[in-house]
C-alpha cells in the first residue's frame, strides 16, 4: 500500500522556519534526503516493525530527534511499541469516519488554532475540558481524538515539527464529574508516549479558567508530567490568561479574537480528519510485533516508561 511503501517527497519549509530548523534542530537541507534514506533503510531491516515509510513521516522523527539518526530510530520504535500498551486509545475506533470521533470533533472539545503564514512560533491547540458529556464519553475517547490530530499535526504542521506545540486546557464548565473522569494513570501513560515517542515537542500546557477554589488542586497535576514539562505547566483562573499564550487575533470570537468562530474551526477540523481516512485505515496495519524483535540488530531497550505492569515512571526530557 502506497502510504506504507512509497515516498511522496517533503514540503519545503518557509524561509524563517528553515533557518530555525538549521539553527535549533541541526538540519542540513542538502543532507535531508540521505538522512531520510538511512532511517528508511534501517526500518526495513527491522523484522518487528511495520510502519509508515513516507518521506514526510520519517522527516518528522528526524527533526524531533535533532537529526540524530540513533535517537530517531529509538523514537520511531517507541512510537509503535508504546501504542500497543495504551489500548484504551489506540484501538478499532481510531478511524477518521468513526461516529464517536466525528461527534467529539463536532462538540468542539479540541480546537486547532491557525497561525499566520510566516509565524515561527509553536502550534496551538485549545482543549475545552468541560465541553463533553461524561455520561456518554470517557476521557480516553477525548485522548484518542487528540492523538489523531496530533498525528495529523506531525505529518503536515511545519510549526509543530520545528517549533513544537502548546496546549491550552480551558477548564470553563468543568464539573466534579469531569475531574473524576480524568483517569490519572492514562494521563500519565499518554504523557509518556507524547514525550518519548511523538516527534513533535511539547512546549507548554496552560490551564485557563480554572475555578479559584480548584486552582491549588490543579497545581498538583504537575506531578503527572516529566520533570521539564512540570516547569511548562501554568494554572490560572484569569480568563485573560489565554492572551499570554496565543495572539488575540488568532483566536475565534468566542475567545475574544477576530478569526471567525469556533464553528468555523470545527468545520475545518472535520474536513481535515475525513481527508485522512485512508491514512488511519492503513495505520491499523502498523505496529511492533515483539515476538519478531531482533534485540541484537535493534539495540533498543524495550522497557517503556510504563514499567512492566503499565505503571508510569517519570522521564527526563532532552
Automatic annotation (TrEMBL):
Transmembrane segments: none annotated. GO terms for cellular component: membrane. Residues 118-157 form the Cyclic nucleotide-binding domain. Gene3D superfamilies: Alpha-tocopherol transfer, CRAL-TRIO lipid binding domain, N-terminal domain of phosphatidylinositol transfer protein sec14p. One of its GO terms (molecular function) is phosphatidylinositol bisphosphate binding. It holds the Pfam family CRAL_TRIO. It comes from the Eukaryota. Residues 98-263 form the CRAL-TRIO domain. PANTHER family: ALPHA-TOCOPHEROL TRANSFER PROTEIN-RELATED (PTHR10174), CRAL-TRIO DOMAIN-CONTAINING PROTEIN-RELATED (PTHR10174:SF216). This is CRAL-TRIO domain-containing protein.
